[in-house]
Amino acid sequence: MMAPPRPTELHQHRVRLTREPAAAAEARRQVRAVIGAWRVRVDPDIAVLLTSDLVTSAIMHGNGQAITLAIRCGYGHLRVDCFATSPSPPADEPAATAPSHGLALVATLATEWGSFGTPAGRVAYFTLALDGDLPASLPAGHTFEKQQDR
Length: 150
Description:
Elements: E1 11-18, H1 22-38, H2 44-61, E2 66-74, E3 77-84, H3 104-109, E4 112-118, E5 121-129
Antiparallel strand pairs: 1-2, 2-3, 3-5, 4-5
Helix pairs in contact: 1-2
C-alpha cells in the first residue's frame, strides 16, 4: 500500500497567549484542535506534550507579557513555533547556538527542533513528520496507548 501523498496546502494558525501558567493548557488545546480540524497524521499526544514543553520553557525563561504560538502543517510536517521575548544571549554567544532551556522531551521526540534569536526575543520550534500509517481523523477524545512488552 502506498503512503498517501504529502499535503501541498500549507495550513497556518497563530494565537497570542498571556505569559502565565494557564498558557500551556491553552496551547495544548489549540494544537489538539488544529490537528483534528486539519486531519493531521501525527500522534496528537506527542504534539501536545512537545507544545507544552516549548510553552513552559517560554513561561519560565521569557520576560514579556505574551507568547505567540504558531502552528503550521504542510509538505509532510507539522511545525509548532513558540515566540517569546527573552533576554539576549551573551555578546560572545550567537543567538542561533544559545542553549535551550530544558527541552529534553522535544529533543528526544521531535523529528527536528531548534531555537533561534529574533530582534524581539527567541523562538523555539519542533516538527513532527506526518505518519501515513495513522488515520487522517481520530474519534474525539482518542488517545494512543503504549504497548507493553511481553
